[in-house]
Amino acid sequence: MSQKIKSIFISCSDSVQCCDRAQYDEATIFEKIKIYIHIAICKACREYTNKNVKLTKLIKKSNLKACTKEEKEKWEKEIAREAKK
Questions:
Q1: Sign (positive/negative) of CA torsion 72, 56, 54, 26?
Q2: Which domain covers residue 57, as residue numbers?
C-alpha cells in the first residue's frame, strides 16, 4: 500500500481525536475526510461521532454561558459563609 493511501486510514484513537477537533471546528479538511473514511468502516467510532454531534447540538441549543469572574467570587463567598453556619 502506498504511503498516501496509508495516511488516509487512521486508528480509532486518532479518529476520536479528529472527531473532537471537528466538534470545535478545529479539524482540517483532510482530518474530516479521514474521519468519514474511518467511521464508514468502524461502528464504534461511528457511534462515538454520532453522540458527539448530538452533544454539540444540545450544547449550542442550550445557549450556555460561563459566569463572570465577579459572579464566581460572589458565589464562593456565599458558599463559604453558608459553610461556616
A1: negative
A2: 3-84
Rounded to the nearest angstrom, the gap between the alpha carbon of residue 15 and the centroid of all alpha carbons in its chain is 12
Total number of domains constituting the chain: 1
- Report the C-alpha dihedral over residues 76, 79, 80, 82, rounded to 10 degrees: 160
Average pLDDT across the chain, whole number: 86
* Residue 39 clears pLDDT 60, i.e. is over it: yes
Cell of 46: 461511528
* For range 43-69, the mean pLDDT: 89
Place of cell 479538511: 29
Tell me which residue has cell 496509508. 6
